Recover the amino acids of this structure.
């Protein structure tokens, strides 16, 4: 039986690790810092036209100043529902309605709340690392299966190193993102 080259699909592993990073960025965006960001309303769904709809599909979301998010709701009949969804979302901001405009004044964060948010950010980062390590384990399992199919020692070492390098880069990216997010949260 001729020995054939056995490849490990590192591109698929990389895509999965990138997916964990993208999910982390989305979670970080929903964390409220002292600065206004349109991302704060992204996770909020409003019951509109018989289905749950994201706020950014019901109006224009703007950030006219560092501590204010303004939503211009296109359908006046939905202003109350959008306002209610924001109140019930748990983002801790009291909407102020003025006709079709809903203003979200972003309150100053106190020290205690900032510390809490850095812990939440760290938790999100740890979840991303767990996802990345799971992808690494899948990659190493593929190498073990390939070994059983006759992969050479040299190839095993090569692919193990390649998977570990992807993992190290992804973990470093998570650490860097966490550091930046925590600095942003603690910035007064």
């Amino acid at each position: 039986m001729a020995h054939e080259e056995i490849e490990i699909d590192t591109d698929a592993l990389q895509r999965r690790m990138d997916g964990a990073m993208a999910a982390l960025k989305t979670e970080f965006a929903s964390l409220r810092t002292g600065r206004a960001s349109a991302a704060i309303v992204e996770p909020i769904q409003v019951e509109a036209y018989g289905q749950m709809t994201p706020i950014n599909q019901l109006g224009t979301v703007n950030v006219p100043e560092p501590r204010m998010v303004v939503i211009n709701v296109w359908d006046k009949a939905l202003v109350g529902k959008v306002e209610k969804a924001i109140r019930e979302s748990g983002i801790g901001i009291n909407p102020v309605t003025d006709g079709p405009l809903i203003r979200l004044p972003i309150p100053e964060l106190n020290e205690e709340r900032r510390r809490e948010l850095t812990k939440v950010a760290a938790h999100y980062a740890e979840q991303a690392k767990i996802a990345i390590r799971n992808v690494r384990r899948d990659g190493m399992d593929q190498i073990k299966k390939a070994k059983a199919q006759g992969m050479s020692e040299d190839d095993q070492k090569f692919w193990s190193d390649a998977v570990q390098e992807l993992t190290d880069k992804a973990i470093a990216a998570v650490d860097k993102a966490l550091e930046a997010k925590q600095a942003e949260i603690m910035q007064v």
Helices lie at 10-30, 79-88, 111-148, 153-186. The CA atoms of residues 61 and 122 lie 28 Å apart. The chain has a mean pLDDT of 89.
